[in-house]
Amino acid sequence: MEFGLSDTQRLFERALRNVLAGHVPLDALHRLPASGADLDAKLWAALTELGLPGVLVPETFGGAGLGTFEAGLAAEALGSFAAPAPFVGAAVMAPLAILRAGREAAQAAWLPRIAAGTARVAVALAGLDAAAGSTSVQRHGERLSGRLDQPIDLAGATHVLTALADGTIALVALDAPGVRVTLRASLDRTRPLGEVALAEAPAEILTAGDDGRRVAAAMLAAGRAMLAADTLGAAQTMLDRAVAHAQQREQFGRPIGSFQAVKHLCADMATMLEPARALVWHAAHAQDGRDDARLLACHAKAHLGEVGREVARMATEVHGGMGFTHELGLHYWFKRIGSNRQLLGGPEQCRREAAALQGWGTT
Amino acid sequence: MDLTYSEPHRALQAEIRELARTHGHLSPKQGGGRRRPDARTLAWQRLLVERGYVGRTIPREYGGHGAQPDVLEAAIIADELARAGLYPGIMSQGISMLVPTLLEVGSEEQRRRWIGPTLRGEIIWCQGYSEPGAGSDLASIRTRAVVDDGHFVVNGQKIWTSSAHYADMMFLLCRTEPDRPKHAGLSYLLVSMSTPGIEVRPLVTMTGRAEFNEVFFTDVRVPVDQIVLGRGDGWHVANLTLKHERLMLGDPSKLVHRVERIAELMARAGVDGERSIDRPELRDRLLRLQAEVLASRCHHLRLLTQRARGEDPGLAQTIVKYFGTTLGHRLSALAVDVLGAGGLAYEPRGEAAEDDEATTWQIDYMYDVGLMIGGGTSQIQKNIIAERGLGLPREPRAAPGRS
After folding, report:
1. A134 touches B at CB < 8 Å
2. I need a labelling partner for A271 at 20 to 30 A (CA). Which of A9, A198, A312, B122 fits?
């Protein structure tokens, strides 16, 4: 029993943070277009070299063969830099679904390409209760019709993986006939949004029925744990920057961080974030097939949604007027935390599911 | 990250479950922490010490079990005792605060003399820190001790002294070097409460109960070898003790138990025939708090891991008291809201108070505010978090050296 990072995990995290520090300066965020950024090819190549797209892919398929805990560390690091790179859908939910669906042919076909960074699979949970958006998709044999709202990691994606209400888990190539992708302007420019329209589009069915529903639930839970980790990283960056600002900015002839009014804002942020970090670790770790994976994912997603909102506001307040400007760029993290909160079910939805999982209440 | 139970861990778990089967009927009831332990409690405490479920890592020569620190063992013991509804052992200032302090800085003679009987509940301690004029600014205390014929002679007054009315001993912070700067003029003495010149008066709080006392010292004579470390080291020793107090006050196992009790209450009780657990607005509050308690428990495991590895937890440790006591109050606040107007009948005095559900929650709801104040207020905690944890500059100080 050890509740903390091993030396190897620390090295993995440090290597990733070094790459991100080099590739995602504030300028890179300022340059992001308002609607539909393409993939940042250089950043993606660097992350692929580190093995990030294949973090969960077994070594026999060319991946890093790591666990969901390491994936959580990666999500946290990406959130720290507000990195505009596919991950939650493309490197966690999609490979996890392909692995859990258990079809060897599909694993052999897709996992090596995912690990190599050449197949980038967006994820849309169109048919699930907790899915964002209200569209549903119909399946006719091996063809899908309908609309997928706001797939995760759509920017630069080559495929989309979707889970339907009937348990079908299907993979669709975005360049196939009958598929139309539209990117839209998004509040959080680091995570472009959009939709995929399907008209009798050819699909590869990975699994269906009860088995598919189990896979979808596991995929949803893992995605939530990763978004919680991303928020943790983003919120920590906001706190670090607030502390640095409070140490350096002077008013009334002294650093504002020496005033208790400011100091206590920072203390409150740290007091929320430190236990939240431990919860995120536990929830990410649990996604490797533990019994309480879904409950922990609900709690981590809901709690980081709440903590993230508070930290985002307070850290901006500590920065005073500068925090409100576009130029300072603090808003990229504010918006990243905001979009993490809404994606894959907001806090209220996650808590409702957490109650149901424990048999609490009937309404 | 490794959350699996090893073979010895599973064996420990089985061992405690076996104890619950064979000896569970001997456990005293939960609660009752505001009185001197009775014979039943003392017998149970001795059993826990013998089995190593209390004082597990304390060396055998001092009356402990001599086990190596292990992250999970302490958590398994707490979980298994709670699951079986067994009394987890006496939670006292002697065990939680003085024993770890003596282990860190006590003399060999002091460790051998005090730790064993304290663990077994035979010696009860109280803490002599706060004074009417020295609360958050603890180092400004005025209770003084002068040396006379092999004794410290103590005069002054302490306040907020819980369990002083039945304690055997006090760990006392007093001023022995009045000419030195205020933090450097203090000493930490171990004082028998039966010494002539000590008067204890109960202090009734907002709960209607006398959970605390005032203690008056008039020419109280304490042998000079009853000092921990040396003259002038009192501030250092007192801060070690305070660190342990803050960790005790933020202990998550109590919070985990509270969530379970509130969930059970909400599934059973309600108004107008609607159970509270079926009301989305109350249930949502419960779920929010459950996530935070879960976070607190995970954080505790992380701290235990850091300690076992010999790492400095830094910031992570400074938040424990503030986070835990605030969360505790929000939990009792939910319980009070679930009970609603029906929970306003209040009988805080006498034995029956411990059995009345509404009264105990109302007491907790108020007492939790006291916990946010005692042991360093939330505001002092936030200064510590910001200055020691985050490295923010200190508040400019008034002229130094004045008490």
Report:
1. no
2. A9
